[in-house]
Amino acid sequence: MNPQSLPPNVTAQLQAHIRDIPDFPQPGILFRDITPLLGDAATLRLTIDQLAVPLQGVPVDYIVGIESRGFLFGMPLAYRLGTGFVPVRKAGKLPHTTLAADYTLEYGTNVLEVHADAVQPGQRVVIVDDLLATGGTAAATVALMRQLGAQVVGLAFVIELAALGGRIKLANYPVHALLTY
How far apart are CA 25 and CA 16, in angstroms? Predict the structure, then answer.
């Protein structure tokens, strides 16, 4: 992935469509709500286009989207780049043989799964989600891709909460976030 910084007008447009919700899903958490961004066609298109910029010229076989908001950005990004899409889901949601990885997030723990045949060894993947917080979800997804033998060529996020230090867990990979709070 090629590093990118957004022009100030793009940053402002994206930020204008992120709503802050205090104390959700529990007291002390400031939730960055992307639903206004999803509801505005021009800003949604801008978001997908900006996620694609650092991937120009990078060979990618699959976009890997993390349930559930990673699907919202991963599918159109896969379409835009002409790649396949691999869903990584919470435990018990995939119908075929799966691999699993535990992870910790800022307010609990969970398990992610991927189909055991989703990616072949050596295939190049980019992991996509809406938010990088503590990095637990993304690191678990990296672990799943590595179990499958995939080459993780980068991770892309709409928002990074820098104070939570998630990027540290992903230090061996290129990480791109459109907005940093």
Answer: 22
